[in-house]
TrEMBL record, chains A, B:
<dbReference type="InterPro" id="IPR011991">
    <property type="entry name" value="ArsR-like_HTH"/>
</dbReference>
<dbReference type="InterPro" id="IPR036388">
    <property type="entry name" value="WH-like_DNA-bd_sf"/>
</dbReference>
<dbReference type="Pfam" id="PF12840">
    <property type="entry name" value="HTH_20"/>
</dbReference>
<dbReference type="InterPro" id="IPR001845">
    <property type="entry name" value="HTH_ArsR_DNA-bd_dom"/>
</dbReference>
<protein>
    <submittedName>
        <fullName>Transcriptional regulator, ArsR family</fullName>
    </submittedName>
</protein>
<feature type="domain" description="HTH arsR-type">
    <location>
        <begin position="1"/>
        <end position="91"/>
    </location>
</feature>
<dbReference type="GO" id="GO:0003700">
    <property type="term" value="F:DNA-binding transcription factor activity"/>
</dbReference>
<dbReference type="InterPro" id="IPR036390">
    <property type="entry name" value="WH_DNA-bd_sf"/>
</dbReference>
Length: 116, 116
DNA sequence: TCCTTGTTCAACCGTCTGGTTGAGGAAGAG
DNA sequence: CTCTTCCTCAACCAGACGGTTGAACAAGGA
């Protein structure tokens, strides 16, 4: 293990149930029992999912009597967004440059594969 | 398997080696051999990684003589960004509303961390 | 034709993962 | 204190995952 945070975040969101849990927590905090209700898995399984989300920093749990309300930590999303945007922009920039090069090419440019 | 696309994309990017491959492909297309060189794993392992990325729609492979250049498909990033932004905004909106409620509360509200 | 290069397929292996059941801890309610 | 409720821990299981080795395929070049 010992995966870096970005790996943990991506891995956490790779599971549909966990994405669903995040979606519900975006509406409001909830307890483990409440979160488990809609799914036909045991409460323990949901508890495990929450542990994964917690290790990824996506969720925090406090104590409130017996209940342990789960809270969504939205800041971590920025980590992903930054990573994604970085490479998306880089790729787009590259396409733009390639486009410019193609546009500026003379007609008799030697091209492998298309010697028409 | 038969996981939905979003799950495949997140799962694909959960692996550091695959994120690294994506980073390199953002700079320019490359062959399997070229991509495998920096890592001390076999070329077969990298080929498997590329298959995962391809199934997630993140890369495409064409044929060019013996070589199979790998190309980054940046559009899929939008899928993730949309998902993330949706719930981040929803959560922020919720905090904003909660803030308003707290602000409008009478002063004798018990136990607030920072008076004055 | 045979040979070389680049890549994938197939089988296997150890580990991680999502699920289960069963037991146990924490904090009210009686 | 005992009982109940809510939740987590521990052990286990089947399947997926990342890696390996070895063989095979595809497409030039000799």
């Amino acid at each position: 293990m010992a995966a870096d945070e970005l790996s943990r975040v991506f891995a956490a969101l790779a599971d549909p149930t966990r994405r669903d849990i995040v979606a519900r927590l975006a509406v409001g905090d909830a307890t483990v029992g409440e979160l488990a209700a809609p799914y036909d898995v045991t409460v323990q399984a949901v508890s495990k999912h929450l542990r994964v989300l917690e290790d990824a920093g996506l969720v925090s749990r406090s104590r409130e009597a017996q209940r342990r309300p789960v809270h969504l930590e939205a800041e971590v999303f920025d980590l992903m967004t930054k990573w994604i945007e970085r490479y998306r922009r880089q790729a787009e920039e590259r396409y733009r440059r390639l486009d410019d090069v193609l546009r500026s090419l003379p007609d008799d440019t030697p091209r492998e594969g298309n010697p028409s």
